Queue: 4 jobs
Job 1
Amino acid sequence: MSDKKKIDKLIVAVVQSQDSDLVERVLEQAGFSFGKLPSAGGFLRERNVTFLIASEQAKIPELKELVGSAAKRRVSYLATPIDNAPFPILLPAETVIGGASVFTFDLDHFEEF
């Protein structure tokens, strides 16, 4: 390949596991190099997938658009106890989950074997 891309950015995108298959598909279709790691976190202890994506600077806006369109935010309900109640009463609390947390780092060196 004579027209070698200059990979100079590392994007770390954390998405919910239920969105990971779609994120993986759109990244593959767009030709991005990536790796993925299972992870867990947040106060809801949800399972996540962390994508490590190599990119050139010019493709960052496209990459963010792809990840953002594949990893949607949604509303979930969490049972929370009422404070100072004489006996345990749980009320559903609306919580927004999903989406993606995206971090961009400068990359000094990249090789793909």
Job 2
Amino acid sequence: MASHQARPQWRWSFARIGALLMMAALAGCQAVVPRTEPPPVITPPPTPPDTIEGGIPRDQQRHRVALLVPMSGTNAGVGQSIANAANMAILDTGGERVRITTYDTAGPGGPAQAARAAIADGSRLFLGPLLAEDVRLIAPIARQAQVPIVSFSNDTSVAGEGIFVMGFTPGQSIERVVAYARANGSQRFAALIPEGVYGQRASAAFTDAVNRAGGTLVAVRTFERDPRAIQRTVAQLHGEGGYDTILIADGGSTAERVAAAIRAVHTDGVTILGTELWNTQPTLANNAALRGALFASVSDRTFDTMSQRYRARFTGAPYRLSSLGYDAALLAVRLSRAWEPGAPFPMAGLLDDGGFSGVDGAFRFHDNGIAERALEVQRIQPGNFAVVDPAPSGFGG
């Protein structure tokens, strides 16, 4: 039995439509006993079977939804975990009106072939793909077929014109933690940003967040992920001085090295901020240089419950991104109430100002196709992360 805790707290019900078995009526004729030997029975030639169409059978009672994820190649583990979680959501909700079929974006022909196969099978909604480059490849195919895309990417540049980005974006995480720090005494902000696309987006988000919060932007410096380059950049930033709060827009061992370098030159209590990347790296809590650091992310409380049930069903731990598959399937089930099977997906339903709830908490899509998420702020303390400002349960409008 599915855990009641793991189900999202939506106040709506699902129709349980069972498959009706049609029985043909048998028309019988009364047998007549012949007075003479009957003529030989001539067996008619067998009736040729109906032509079988390519793809999966047509389904007039359920909504066709395609899950586009890598089921082979280097990201196969993530794709399988997302697919497992999406099917869990269908089973948990009794969503018999939604049929999800998985297509391998890393198979022969790549994401474009997966998208074409899904459309040929009658899919009216795409959940996925995972990578932004895959979104760009299938976008023209989906738009021509008038099939919206709910992508698991966090690259906001692919959003719009029927494409919705559901991934965890760094900009929202940075804005949330900067606002919290500003409300709790931080005034002068600096940032250390890695080179690359993620760093560029983080830098733009940080500058905007500081301005929105009414803080003072002291400096933003980029660095290479090399120990000597990190030491050099931190020393240069320290020479400018004057900041009480600093963002490290990176995760893992790089964040640990940067934090250690900052603590080495700062004898006073500078506040360190991080991004959503830290949420999936609990080992950061073992690093003394990061104690007291703050970051914002989606809550893990409901995900932890889902993980326990996932392990029981699939005998393995899910990837953290599997929650996107679960919540995307929940979204499809919810919107199936106003969706006639075989008809185009009601895209307007995705733009509900009140938003939706799932494993990762409350979220809603804006007209630009980007999901806004309710995030919590956590502080790193010895051995664990502590929630210091819970995520809101919903949106006011």
Job 3
Amino acid sequence: MTAPARIAGLVAVLVVPLAACGAPSDAADPSATPAAFTTRTVARSDLVSTTTTSGEVGHGTTTSLAARVPGTVTWLAPVGSTVATGQPVYAIDARPVVRLPGAAPAWRDLGPASVDGVDVRQLEQALTDLGHAAGLDLTVDDDWTSVTTAAVRRWQKALGVARTGTVRLGDVLFTPEDMRVDEHLADLGALVEPGAPVLSVGSTQRLVTVTLRTSQAALAPVGGAATLTLPDGTSTDGTITATGVVTVDEQPQLRVTIAPADALVDGLVEGTPVEVGLDQTVASDVLLVPVTALVALADGGYGVQKVLADGTSRYVTVTAGAFAGTSVEISGEDVAEGDDVVVTP
């Protein structure tokens, strides 16, 4: 939409020639002391456009966990439960799959013959944190040693499994954070093959999710800010933590996950609607005034009624730039940050 069209209806178009002072000839003399002004100060800031949409409270995007070994599902962590460090997620043939902290996924069997790797370091760190390396003088590094084997045997004894001193692929699940069980994807007693989904997990934190058009990706950069308005009218800030494309009604959509800055949403039930405001910077470090400060001049340009030091005013020509909400970017030789301009009530 053009700038003239955007302010149509907001200000009266002045169709008479301008006087030397810049005001229309049939207008009240702006150099005279007015009875009253409603003014706003010209500010220098970023021009931000806010898009408001609807989101809902949940635990964010879920991830399915697949079996790594064949066998029968003999135990599943309850839906809604939190799986912390050292706790089992599920069991195959009565052998628990234990969650341990780590950014790198498990990808191989581990034991004395293993070459150095970050997965060895993650395992040693977890065994140390869980107390299974106490008194063993275990050095946490990428190297598997006899001390690592001893710590693994202690851990296996605590789990109630065979004390082999080795860790087969499928015995551990490395994840960076604790996780919440969202859904069982396999039944107890089900026979599964490697790659078969067993359950889905998500964040333990209450999050807000929003679905946008893929063309709106610029509104939701990871790390960007959001404003969350709860059903009772209270508001809190949020940070965009993840985005991903999902299919909704056979159409690609952008799923946005937002982490609230505080615990205000923790008491809300799953699916509670939340109003989400997403900000996008339209112009940076520009002069801003309310749209109602603009007047359309007879020669086709735009102006503002600038208040002078003696309390009088005069019209000065400005160039209108980007619009966002109730503000507009302006520039001009006769207007500066800190000037007061008249706005229509």
Job 4
Amino acid sequence: MLIFFIHGVAESKVKFAQPLKSLIKQDFYQRGHNLPHFHSGFYADILNTKDRIWNFIYQDLANTK
């Protein structure tokens, strides 16, 4: 599973989503599920390079399968 965080609105910290990632990983681990893959990005970067980002996402998903 891929979880993709887009953040950066009124927040410039790179690890802004880290506490939420940790909680999600902990919940998956406790339930005995495979841990998800995470990707984070700032909204401005995503909007400016969305085609390139989606290509990376599709490639990562294909590699995971």
